[in-house]
Structures are given as structure tokens and as C-alpha cells.
Amino acid sequence: MPALSVTPLTGMPEVRPGDDLGTLLLDAAAALDLTFEDGDVVVVSSKIVSKSLGLWADSAIKSAAVASQTVRVVAERMAGDRLTRIVQSTAGPIMAAAGVDASNTGDHDGVLLLPADPDAEAERLRVTLLAATGLSRIGVVLSDTAGRPWRFGQTDFALGAAGLDVVDDLRGGVDADGRALSVTARAVGDELAAAADLVKGKAEAIPAAVVRGTAWARTDRGPGARALIRSGREDWFDYGRAEAVRAALGLEPGSSGAEQLGIPSVAPEPVGVRVERAVTIAVSLNPFGCGADTSTEGVVEVCADTAFQVGQLVSRVRVALWGEGLDSTLDGAEFTGPDGDVRARLTVTDR
């Protein structure tokens, strides 16, 4: 297997709106006596692309900026009095706050938005580099940073790409033992972005790096980083856990109703708070029933005009409680309330 080298392009100036990024990258390489070669992959922080395009928004209205860059909300949590949303961004990937970011923004007091079409911006850079160098095969990756389900911390990934096989599809081949490979498809675009981040760094103000020694650069534009996005039926995680339950009860994440009826916190919450939120959602979005009583700790009592309606409300409450990480059991059969209504009692425990 050939060795890879990753070289940071140091010495690049602060990028301003209208700057020619291709020229800045070429100048930085020349200052390091680095000559581009066929097969090189240039990994560039999407942040400097956004800066060159002037994609600034007022930090005082960051929530409006996030909303403008959101296709749909996947998950949402409160952190103190601050609401954070994981969303499908207009740029393509699912990210916290649609990728709207205030870090490494230089002397500008604002937040940066992601490019609307990262693959197109990568292609523009690739065309500039090819024209300036006379080469035929240079890959470009626009990198950004995101967290990952099930894993702590953040890593860089390919937000945009051009001139690159972003996937090394090994399906149909065999492994080192001769066994058939039926699933493995390496996310090369993301791996290159992460490798470059090891020398770029968030705190060192090094926004670009050259990866040399790979076999994945190509002479044409290629599929772009959008080929790495799972969507539609391929997306197994189109809602967060709590959001899937709330949406099934009629409360879509990102809606005004979601905020009004309460959004779970990132921090642990008392059982009583979670019970109250679950019951509020189940009852307020139900056309039947006279309500629910949560005044007794660990007990929810629901009421409706008929046994059928109380059964429907019990089902909604139990689903909502489950979404809050709570178990519930029906405490006996329905009974008649003091006003002649039908009632049922649930015992609630933490799961």
C-alpha cells in the first residue's frame, strides 16, 4: 500500500468576501515550495469558502439564520434556556444548527452560513487549480465539522467534493481471506477530510491541506459529496428517538407547538417534569377526553366521556410517557368519576 502524506498550507491570510481562493491556495503552496501533482487532493475548510462568498449573518439573530438554512428538524433539545436543533441543512448534511457557526470567523462579529451548493464550490476551485497548474487530475474536498450518533466528539467530513471518487465501493470483491464483500463501501471523501484535519486544526488557523499518494482523484467532476448523504428510505434516523414519538402523536419537531408544549433537556430531568410534559402533549393534541390529573406523584389519571375515548387517551399517554423514558402500567379497569365520566389510572415509573 502506498504511503500518504498530508501537508498543511500554512501562511494563508484572513479570507475576505470576493477573495480568489484558488489564487490564495496556489500562493500558499508556492511559499512552501510545494508543487501540485496529478492525483493530489486539496482539502479546504468550508469556512473560508463561506468567507469568500460573504455568507455572513448577524449573530444576534442566529436562530433566524439557522431556520433559513433548515430543510427539516431531526431532533431538538434544551440546554438551559438555549434551544439546539439537529437539522437537515440546505447544504445537504444533517448537522447541529444547520452548520451555522461563529468559530474562526476572524475579526467579523457574526456567524457564517454554509455554501448552498458545496459540490459546485469544490468544482469551481478544482477548475481554477487545473487551469493554473496544467494538470488533469486534482481532487478538491470542502470539509466541515460535525458530531456523530453513538460517538463522542466531532470529526471533519466531506461537505463538498469534486474530481474525486468519494466512495471506494468494495462490494462484489473479496477480503484478505477470500470472503465475499457485500456491504463494505469506504467513505473516502470523509476519510480524506478527517486526515487533513489532523494537520489543519481549528486553533492553528490553517484552513487547507494537500493529501498526496491516494488513488481516488479523477479527471472529471465526479459524483460530489452529496453521494455520501443517506436520504429517503435509506435514512434510518430521520427523527431522533423522542422526536419520532412526539411526531407520531402529532407534534412535529421544529414546530411552534413543540416549543410551547415543552422540549426535552440535554441534562437529566426529574420524573415529574417528564410526566407533565408527556401528559400535556398526549392530552392537548387529543380531540377527546376531559384531561388528565398528575397531582399524585407517580400516578396519571385520565378521563373521557366514553370507555372508548378513555382507552384512546390512555394509549396516547402511555406512548408519550415511553418517549420520555418512562414506563407505565394500567392500574385496574376503568371506573366512573364523580361527574359521571369514565376514568383510568396509570402508575408511572422511571425506565
From TrEMBL:
<dbReference type="GO" id="GO:0052618">
    <property type="term" value="F:coenzyme F420-0:L-glutamate ligase activity"/>
</dbReference>
<dbReference type="GO" id="GO:0046872">
    <property type="term" value="F:metal ion binding"/>
</dbReference>
<dbReference type="Pfam" id="PF01996">
    <property type="entry name" value="F420_ligase"/>
</dbReference>
<protein>
    <submittedName>
        <fullName>Coenzyme F420-0:L-glutamate ligase / coenzyme F420-1:gamma-L-glutamate ligase</fullName>
    </submittedName>
</protein>
<keyword id="KW-0630">Potassium</keyword>
<dbReference type="GO" id="GO:0005525">
    <property type="term" value="F:GTP binding"/>
</dbReference>
<keyword id="KW-0460">Magnesium</keyword>
<dbReference type="InterPro" id="IPR002847">
    <property type="entry name" value="F420-0_gamma-glut_ligase-dom"/>
</dbReference>
<keyword id="KW-0436">Ligase</keyword>
<feature type="domain" description="Coenzyme F420:L-glutamate ligase-like">
    <location>
        <begin position="12"/>
        <end position="213"/>
    </location>
</feature>
<dbReference type="InterPro" id="IPR008225">
    <property type="entry name" value="F420-0_g-glutamyl_ligase"/>
</dbReference>
<keyword id="KW-0479">Metal-binding</keyword>
<keyword id="KW-0464">Manganese</keyword>
<keyword id="KW-0342">GTP-binding</keyword>
<keyword id="KW-0547">Nucleotide-binding</keyword>
